Amino acid sequence: MLLPLLLNEPRQAQPFVFLQSTPAQSILPLLRALCNRIGTHSIICNFLYAPPTLVEQGIPSVVVHDWTAEVPGYSNARDLKTELLSAVKNAPRENPLNIVIDSLETLSENQDSPVETYEFLHDVLQLIKNHPRPSQLIVHSVELGEVGPLLLQTDFSSSLIHLMAHPTSLFRYLSREYMLPPPPMTPDAKFWGIFLPFSKRMNEVERLSFGIDGEGSSNNGEMVVEILTRGINNQSRKRGTERLLAGWDSNKSLSCSILDLEDLKPLFSQNTTVEIAPDPAQNLSFNLSLSESQQQSRAQVPLPYAHEGQRPNATASNAGTIFYDPDSADDIDDDDPDEDLDI
Predict the structure, then answer these.
(1) 319: exposed, middle or buried (C-beta count within 10 Å: 0-12, 13-18, 19+)?
(2) Which ranges of the chain would DSSP assign to H, the alpha helix?
(3) Cα distance between residue 301 and residue 188, in whole Å
(4) Nearest to residue 88, comparing CAs of 51, 120, 49, 116?
(5) In degrees rounded to 5, what are phi and psi of residue 115?
(6) Once rounded to an integer, what is the mean pLDDT over residues 42-68?
(7) Helices 114-129 and 80-89 meet at what angle, rounded to 10?
(8) Distance between CA 75 and CA 141 in Å, rounded?
């Protein structure tokens, strides 16, 4: 339920949201949904994608700052820091505020150093935390580069929502080759222990989707979103993290459970037909079964037991009784076995 909560009730979410696309699956459909949330004042900073790619027409609460044509050294670039920080300070105070940066890599390239990018985003995040309404900084990245890992540390933000997109073909492959369907079919500890290192092999994941025998990222616009959460709110110091999976249908622009994804439904279907083992006594030339009279006769045969009829004393304690029959090779006597030794 975290994705619906993030899309519909930003006041309940953390102030920093980090979206990460992978070479095999873009998270752009989810980024588009976050840019057009109702009831929030959004400032969209376009560095890579054209504004119509992310912003729907006719939404008055969305302000677009288009820097796609601003190339350092080739144009009279505007002052990015001053423009964005001024837009955040002058944003309406009565509505939640969203600052969306569509490409961390392009933003970092426009700055003099990764440290300058980090400090600039840190200043933006502090302004968002001081906003009277719960607000968010939403950053999208394809390759983490040098700045991405710094933003995921607790020094930048103690609370975090990290969304990473994965193709459904990856989960079909793991289920087929590793017998590892997604939770709840597989325990969380076992699944994440194999999925996390495998998903970091970007070349192999990309081959599964777009190689010679690739299955494609999705057959119908579906994807799986890995959600990592840390902390509860902007005052939280909790360092523990929680990881889970959610589904996204790009055609409907709707979040759902991975159980409802059409591409993954075969992984969760179970064969409810009970197969009865054949009777080995069938089709034999002789009879292995006993009639009722034969079963009664067999039950009346006395069993050859050496201590049959012997019972421990009823008045004795309930301690167990040991019966021992010596073998012919047992040397049972009361003599000292070491009496022949001259000590």
Answers:
(1) exposed
(2) 2-8, 28-35, 51-54, 80-89, 104-110, 114-129, 148-151, 168-177, 188-199, 202-210, 265-268, 292-299
(3) 56
(4) 120
(5) -65, -40
(6) 87
(7) 10
(8) 25
**Sequence-separated contacts (24+) of 326-331 with Cβ below 8 Å:** none
Return the minimum-mean-pLDDT range out of 58-72, 224-238, 283-297.
Answer: 224-238
Token reading at 208? 């599964």
> Residue 304, preceding bond cis, omega within 30 degrees?
no
**Cα–Cα distances in Å, from 147 out to 90, 111, 232?**
27, 11, 24
Which CA distances in Å does 249 have to 43, 164, 188, 216, 267?
25, 15, 24, 16, 18
pLDDT digits (tens, 9 = 90+) for 257-293: 888 888 888 888 754 444 566 777 677 777 777 888 8
Q: What is the pLDDT of residues 100-121, one digit of tens each?
A: 999 999 989 888 889 999 999 9
Topology of domain 2-267, per CATH?
Answer: Rossmann fold (3.40.50)
Q: Which of 33, 11, 16 is nearest to 253 (CA)?
A: 33
- Say if CB 56 and CB 253 are below 8 A apart: no
Distance CA 265, CA 256 (A): 13
Provide DSSP, 148-212: HHHHTSTTT-SSEEEEEEE-HHHHHHHHHHS--PPTTSS-HHHHHHHHHHHHT-HHHHHHHHHST
CA distance linking residue 54 with residue 58, whole number of Å: 13
What token pair was written down for 258?
A: 């991975």
10 Å Cβ neighbour count for 341? 7
Alpha carbon 291 to its chain centroid, in Å, reads 60
Q: How many residues does the chain have?
A: 343
pLDDT of 205 higher than 50: yes
By C-alpha distance, which of 54, 28, 8, 49 is closest to 223?
28
